[in-house]
Amino acid sequence: MSKVLTKPQRCKQCGLCVAVCPKKAISFSSEINTAGYLFTVIDDEACIACGICYTTCPDGVYEIPGTK
To answer: What is the pTM of this model?
Structure first.
């Protein structure tokens, strides 16, 4: 199971999460979501599930399993 789940259809390619990830585990996919934006993907190997992406994202793209 992934440490952090994503909702690609919500991503608006703002890049805030990419900029703040301390492990540089977030990058943009080469695919486009239904809204016309490149969406983010997480490198699960590098991710430490710190939650910074979750708290930074204005569009609710991220979910950390086991938290509410």
So the answer is: 0.91
Per-residue pLDDT of the chain (68 residues; tens, 9 = 90+): 689 999 999 999 999 999 999 999 999 999 999 999 999 999 999 999 999 999 999 999 999 988 76
Total of domains in the chain? 1
Torsion of CA 12, 21, 2, 49, to 10 degrees: -130
CATH number at residue 50: 3.30.70.3270
For residue 68, is it within any domain? Answer: no
Tokens of 8: 């690609």
Q: State how far Cα 5 lies from the chain centre.
A: 8
Residue closest to 27 by CA, chosen among 60, 45, 58, 65: 45
Domain span at 34? 5-63
